[in-house]
Amino acid sequence: MSKLIFINLPVTDLARSTAFYEALGATRNPQFSDETATCIVFSDTIHAMLLTHDKYRQFTSKEIADAHVSSQVLICLSEDSRAEVDARIERAAAAGGRADPGPVQDYGFMYGRSFEDPDGHHWEVMWMDLAAAQEAMAPRESVPA
Fold this sequence. Notes:
Order of helices and strands: EHEEEHEHEEEEH
Strand content: 25-35%
CATH architecture of the largest domain: Roll
CATH superfamily of the largest domain: 2,3-Dihydroxybiphenyl 1,2-Dioxygenase, domain 1
Low-confidence stretches: none
Radius of gyration: 18 Å
Helix content: 10-25%
Number of helices: 4
Number of strands: 9
């Protein structure tokens, strides 16, 4: 069985957050959603659990950080092309997110942009030509002097 990832995010307005991620092209899984949580599906193996603050507090006694003013995690999704990276960022901005809170990264073989959701959670979106990346990052033989 493939390993799955469930990213748990505290949100202040569950309906707004659910609509935001659906506008990005993710889908809601009703089997794992209720008035306190929405399961957002990005792929067969990547899910985000949007949790009201009361629900999130059931899993931790730590203070819930305000992602608008502090950072705890950077989440990264891959896309199949540079154009798909740009399209996801454009959808995020159109749905009420903030486009490019971090610098655009363009290394030729890798391209990345980012967005913040309405609660300030920072998401990276990247495309990479894996063969070109491996070539660019391969150790080089040193030439004796």
